[in-house]
Amino acid sequence: MKKGFYIVFEGIVGSGKTTQSKLLLEKMQAKFPKREVIWTKEPGGSEIANEIRRVVQGTKFEEEMDPVCEQYLYAASRAQTLRCVVTPVLKKGGIVISDRSFFTSIANQGFGRGLGLKKVLEINKSAVDGIWPDKVIVVDTQMDVALSRVKDHGGDKFESYSKDFYCKVHNGYKATAKLYPKIVKIIDGNGIPEAVHGRIWKYVSGLKNL
User: Fold this and answer.
1) Which CATH architecture has domain 5-205?
2) Orientation angle between helical segments 47-58 and 67-81, nearest 10 degrees
3) Angle at 151 between CA 18 and CA 195, to 5 degrees
């Protein structure tokens, strides 16, 4: 049996990562017709994880959510998705393509919200429990272009954050690529979707152990 393979897409809001992850899903399903190939997302991906997402990301509260509270909620959602959605497919030798992972928390909460790398890893240790992506693709799109695509201001609090916040997040992704060079690959996200997909496919099709 083939070993399972777990590919994650990352990037700031509006980077095109969701579009690109779904394009890769189609290509991988065609290339590996005998293997289970699924798409999932974080936060969310299962009934419980989706409900946690609604609370932490789409619910307006009078009080501000503390970054530590926020991170624990994301970790809880992550724990559920990894165990109920991701791991069962990987155990069967399938391929999981995910829109976000705990690398998002490193960038958003660690850098954007100022928790720091150490605190984010500490909170996520039990949630992740060694279920790391085989590869992380960061879709790196020009900041102004990415933020101009943001539309869900009312349903997702992160889509209403400032450019300054996303500059910190972007720096977080760059730092993460340096920390985990064997896992994280930054790919130019500028241009039409087909061109970006071409760059991604060139990289993915050259990976070993798929």
Assistant:
1) 3-Layer(aba) Sandwich (3.40)
2) 160
3) 40
Query: In sequence order, what DSSP letters do the residues of 37-90 get, joined into one string?
Result: EEEEESS-SSHHHHHHHHHHHH---SSPPPHHHHHHHHHHHHHHHIIIIIHHHH
Q: Residues 187, 196: contact at Cβ < 8 Å?
A: yes
Residue ranges of domains in the chain: 5-205
Distance CA 39, CA 183 (A): 19
Q: Taken in order 83, 89, 90, 91, is the CA torsion positive or negative?
A: positive
Name the token pair of 51. Answer: 């409900």
Residue of 118, 117, 85 whose CA lies nearest to 100: 85
3-class DSSP assignment, residue 14: coil
Q: Which pTM was predicted?
A: 0.94
Question: Which tokens belong to 183?
Answer: 């896992």
**Predicted confidence (pLDDT) per residue in 91-126, tens digit:** 999 999 999 999 999 999 999 999 999 999 999 999
Please name which of 112, 44, 40, 38 lies closest in space to residue 73, comparing C-alpha atoms. 44
Whether residue 43 is preceded by a cis peptide bond, meaning omega within 30 degrees of 0, is: yes
Alpha-carbon gap, residue 11 to 137, rounded angstroms: 8
Mean pLDDT along residues 70-86: 97
